[in-house]
Amino acid sequence: MTKLEKAVKFYDKINQDFFRDVSIYLEHGFVYSDPNSILLAKPVKKNDGCPINKWIEHDDADAWYVHFAIGENCFKQWWSKIPFKLSYIGFGRALKNKKINYYKSENFFRRINNV
After folding, report:
1. What pTM was estimated for this model as a whole?
2. pLDDT tens digits, residue range 31-60?
3. Which residues contact 47 (CB under 8 A, 6 or more apart)?
4. Which phi-psi region, left, alpha or beta, contains residue 23 (left: φ > 0; alpha: ψ -120 to 50)?
5. Cβ neighbours of 3 (radius 10 Å)
6. Which tens digit of pLDDT belongs to each residue from 60-92?
7. Smallest Cα–Cα separation from 36: which of 78, 12, 2?
């Protein structure tokens, strides 16, 4: 199964439209894609409530909110290519209905680079 097929299948499970999110993130956020992974992210203020439907200018942001990520090493690859770094990274677990948690970027990426 391709990364695109996996992404669409995941979105079907949560009753959402993958291509809608990609188009929104292409216009207002950031889309990372390589042969093995896809990641949708945007700059946010970490203490400004749920970021899912909020869009701000990156100058006001202190965190990256990762809306969707799939694929091996997608976080490592994305982090090496983003246009600017922010102090925190946040994400939730849609299938597990988990709230969005934020982590210090330097700690998060130090941990995944050591795995």
Report:
1. 0.88
2. 999 999 999 999 999 998 888 888 877 788
3. none
4. alpha
5. 17
6. 899 999 999 999 888 888 888 888 999 999 988
7. 2
Helix 18-28 / helix 3-13 crossing angle, nearest 10 deg: 110
Q: How far apart are CA 78 and CA 98, in angstroms?
A: 23
Identify whether the C-beta of residue 38 lies closer than 8 Å to the C-beta of residue 7: yes
Residue 55 vs residues 17, 97, 111: alpha-carbon distances, Å: 19, 22, 28
Tokens matching residue 98: 């988990």
The domain of 103 spans 3-113
The number of domains in the chain is 1
User: Which segments of 8-87 are extended strands (E)?
Assistant: 30-34, 37-44, 63-70
